[in-house]
Amino acid sequence: MSYTPKSEFLRIIIQRGFLADCTDLQELDERLLKGSLSAYIGYDATAASLHVGHLLNIMLLRWWQKTGNTAITLMGGGTTKVGDPSFRSDERPLLGPEQIDANIDGMQKVFARYLDYSASTGHGALMCNNAEWLDTLNYLDFLRDIGRHFSVNRMLSFESVKSRLDREQSLSFLEFNYMILQAYDFLELNNRYGCVLQMGGSDQWGNIVNGIDLTRRVANKEIFGLTTPLLTTSDGRKMGKSQGGAIWLNGDMLSPYEFWQFWRNTTDADVARFLKLYTELPVEECERLGALEGSDINQAKIILANEVTSLLHGQEAAQAAEQTAREVFEKGGVGDDLPTLELSQSDIGDGMSIVQLFVKSGLAKTGKDAKRLFKENGAKVNDQPHSDAGWVVSAADLEKPLKLSAGKKRHALVILNT
User: Fold this and answer.
1) For the whole model, what pTM was predicted?
2) What sign does the dihedral 24-25-30-31 (CA atoms) show?
């Protein structure tokens, strides 16, 4: 990078590894040096919770606000009805208004943990919903006033669309409209709140550039785009994915203990990078911890898990998760905070196969996965290796809590409510 920024925000995010690209880094830096600015990131309401894959950009917004700027979280109440086709192989399932609103409610709980929406900071974050302006658009007026600024040839050249067409996979006209609607969001936020920066993952580069170009054409305003890298772990997996599925940020979809354990299981090579991106520890301390070797690196992973979990679920939840982990791994106990499957007498009936229990407790995605776990000697019951996938667990077997383990690091309790 030939230009070295002077503004606090850009210096921090470059040092910590957040920056992938920026439309005009020097000009944005100069604008930041002159005073507070507004920036936004958009989130479509495709699920009831955000997941770890969203956390990088949530932390980016947090740093934006912490350095004296106004952060805008844009809920895609309107764009979710269309669905972002970027780098997808098929069309997203369409959600109804009630489901979209419910999903937004779940997502807002997460943002409240990372951003201050009150005016106490002087730069209170804003929560917006693009349904406010997209739901009331007049189609003919929108085509005439906004659609005329878009070149289909240029839109087809964007990698997110081109990759879909190159594979000869269908791209519906509904999806094709998505990039126009997202560009219009940027124009609308600039008109309403003076927003001058859209941030997002590098897969959103084409959509961001569209919004910048539209705002320049319609309002003659200079605005900016900034992207973060698409993260994969050192072993090549997409960030936020695990054997059990997505790592959700809402506590009712993934327990604080399971969230803590995800970070505790970070590979050695990722520790320093994740400390810089997902915690607020000084960069020098992140590098020191990440350079530890042997058994010492495990302490760095515990610090990572505690710091990230404290930000999302609070310090008490992080401490409880660490205590449970110590009981489970060091003392052979069951731990009070382990993920728990509670069954009733009617659930258990004449018995339930151990394979079903592994699936219901979240330790295996499917019965096939569970059976493979047994076959490969990766299943334990009450800390003892168990290879009988045909065992039918009765109510009598559940007089005491049953501890199930998948490998060395994933555990759950099964309890029968009497």
Assistant:
1) 0.79
2) positive
**Residue 160, pLDDT above cutoff 70:** no
Residue 244: strand, helix, or coil: coil
DSSP-derived pairing of the beta strands 392-393 and 352-353: antiparallel
* Sequence-distant contacts of 182-185: CB under 8 A, at least 24 apart: 182/42, 182/79, 182/84, 182/207, 182/210, 182/211, 183/150, 183/207, 183/210, 183/211, 183/213, 183/214, 184/133, 184/134, 184/142, 184/146, 184/211, 184/214, 185/42, 185/74, 185/79, 185/130, 185/134, 185/211
Q: What is the pLDDT confidence band of residue 84, given thresholds at 50, 70 and 90? A: low
Alpha helices in 3-157 (DSSP H): 8-16, 25-34, 52-66, 97-114, 131-134, 139-145, 152-157
Domain boundary assignment for the chain: 8-228, 255-329, 340-416
Tokens 């997502």 correspond to 107
d(CA 224, CA 28) in angstroms, rounded, equals: 7
Positive/negative CA dihedral, 147, 148, 152, 158: negative
pLDDT at 54 over 50: yes
Average pLDDT in the chain: 87
**CA–CA gap between residue 257 and residue 308 (Å, rounded):** 12
Encoded tokens for 260: 């803590």
Overall CATH class of domain 255-329: mainly alpha
Write the DSSP symbol of residue 269: G
Give the residue-averaged pLDDT of 270-292.
97
The reply to whether domains 8-228 and 255-329 share a CATH topology is: no
The Cα–Cα gap between 291 and 281 comes to 15
Please give the distance of CA 110 from its chain centroid, rounded to a whole number: 10
Lowest mean pLDDT among 48-52, 127-131, 341-345: 341-345
The shares of helix, strand and coil residues in the chain, as percent rounded to the nearest 5, are 50, 15, 35
Q: The domain 340-416: what is its CATH number?
A: 3.10.290.10
Is 140 or 60 the better-scoring residue by pLDDT? 60
- Nearest-10 Cα torsion for 237, 385, 418, 356: 50
Beta strands 379-381 and 384-385: pairing type? antiparallel
Tokens of 370: 């569970």
Q: Can you name the CATH fold of 8-228?
A: Rossmann fold (3.40.50)
Radius of gyration of the chain (CA): 24
